[in-house]
Amino acid sequence: MLPRPRGIVFSRIQQLVLLAATLLLLTINLSAEPTHSNVVCREELSEAHRDQLASKLRRITGWPGLKFDRSGFLRRGNAEPVGGSQTARDLVAKAIYGSQVVVLEDASKHPDVAFCRVLPGKWKNHSSNNLPAHVVQIDFADFEQVLGDERALDAFNVGWGLLHEFDHIVEDSRDAMSLDETGECEAHINQMRRECDLPERAHYFYTLLPLSTETAFTTRLVRLAFDQEQPSGNKKKRYWVLWDANVVGGLDLQRQIASLR
Ligand SMILES: [Zn+2]
Questions:
Q1: What is the pLDDT of the chain when averaged over all its residues?
Q2: Which of 94, 149, 197, 234 could staple 170 via S-S, CB 3.0–4.6 A?
Q3: Measured in angstroms, how far is the CA atom of residue 129 from the centroid of ligand 1?
Q4: Which of 13-22, 87-96, 128-137, 249-258 has the lowest average pLDDT?
Q5: CB pairs under 8 A, 24+ apart, for 242-247?
Q6: Ligand 1 centroid to residue 115 C-alpha, Å
């Protein structure tokens, strides 16, 4: 038997190194974030509000690297999720990588926007290649008006508001039409709240605080309930958020729906 040439031993090591490097590159590629994003901020949406949105979404999705890039596009980042809701991650991923474009607009203090709403977007240049577009208007000032139990406030903030609108766009889900249901859209959002160990929204529509009176000149305090199953026993614990509907708006729609009953 001839002695094995040294070069072969060396090249085997090289092969192994090459194989290891290829596997490493494959792993990096598999977890790398795709380059495009279909969720973008309008230029006027301030850095502070972008940070606020991203920070709420990081907490809900558990993606530590989620942020808006320098051009205003929402990025989930490459880091693996830590905690958070899988259902929320699926929804955000569908919004970012789906077949629709979502533009985020600051509608703070807009009289027609109570918290958030979504409107159909229009392209300036008409082309059959244009993806369907939507504009999500966010009233950051409305969220600052909300008071209440800490756990309910964690389940009702600007991040949850944006996810609610994403769900309308991506899943074509509907809101409740009667006072005693949460509606298809909020049912999806409640699943995410459960996965984040947060209380669930009990109703879609808010109700007038019992002590408030219906006059044109006073504050009109309204409230919304959030329920969470307690680990000990089968009782649910109820948490509240409340706000002045005269400041936030949305009373007209609420009246219309209430009159359907
Ligand atoms: Zn809705």
A1: 86
A2: 94
A3: 28
A4: 13-22
A5: 242/146, 242/147, 242/148, 242/209, 243/142, 243/145, 243/146, 243/147, 244/145, 244/219, 244/220, 245/206, 245/220, 245/221, 246/219, 246/220, 247/142, 247/145, 247/219
A6: 10
